[in-house]
Amino acid sequence: MVQLYGKNLSRRDVAAHAGDLSQFAGVRSMTLDDGLERGIRMLEFRTGTGLRFTVLVDRAMDIADCDYQGKAIGWHSPSGFRHPGLHEYEGEGGLGWMRSFSGLMVTCGLDHILFMYDAPADNYVYGPRETIKQSIHGRVGTIPARLTGYGERWEGERCILWAEGRVRQATVFGEHLELVRRIEVEVGTNDIRLSDKVVNLGFYKTPHMYCYHINVAHPVLAEGSRYLAPIKDVVWAAHAGENYCKQNVGYRTAAAPLNPFHEQVWQHEMAADGNGEVPVALVNDALGLGFEVTTRKDQFPCMYEWQNFQSAHYALGIEPSTNHVLGQAGARERGEMIWLEHGDERRYDTRFRILTSADEIAASEARISGLAAQPAEDYPEPSGNFEPIRGRA
Could you tell me how far CA 115 lies from the centroid of its own chain? Predict the structure, then answer.
């Protein structure tokens, strides 16, 4: 049954109440036509609950806008949803990526994440290319997808909204990787399901690193909003040391917008449930509104928390990752780099859920705290214990 407006409706009931499902929910294709966003293809999803989100087909099928009953969930940075044709991947010494950094979700990869790195290129057997110059967070986030389909699908009395696309990152004498992304959400619900597959279509042994930069914004993020996670250990903090408490912002509770503020990044070691899932949430108790991300520990063994509380850049990032914050150099040195031969693939199954009431927040918190009790202090001493990554799916 489809749950709409407090009632359980059959497919026949839905059809009886409107000439088309789009009156209540659906997926609509459109193209942005002004400013730096001009020409970007976009899909708009509406589930009938008040949840609306958009998928940027021309930016790796990433999720841009997201709001619930008029309340913003996803982050809009000053850079906007810039057309990929304007992107300069190697600009500003590798930091040009920041000029295209916006939205609820930005995909990082496919062969590199984190800060700039000159990767050895001997695996590509091409003498003139001694290194691969990697900018921050990789190339994939500004590559247009080939849209293979979208729409509504009925499964008995349930209706699924969906979209699928393929994003190819490739060069001559280099990597030939493809991301196949499928996004689904059931009408009458607030659960977005993301299914990704990264496959090596080439015949060179190719490195693979992957991360989601999931950016939650005001009003879910506000002074006093709480970060909930099954933290077994605080492994690392970018700002640890003599100035650990300088900005008076710990890992647990959000501050109001600050000026100035320097970003803070933490890596936490998370516990998983019996199904291997790791839930993390940001909640605003005053509004009874939250956002929960659930990943798989065998797919994303690492998790970062990004605090960007600078005025006009105000966001908190939930960042599941295939690798430690040590970056590509650390992954190579520790033997933790993923290497894909021809036809090898990696899968990633993730769920985003809007928490719409105090009861749903309490249930999420109970689930999370039941896996591990996160540190009670705001500034736990980082252990520096980067656990070896084993048992990848």
Answer: 17
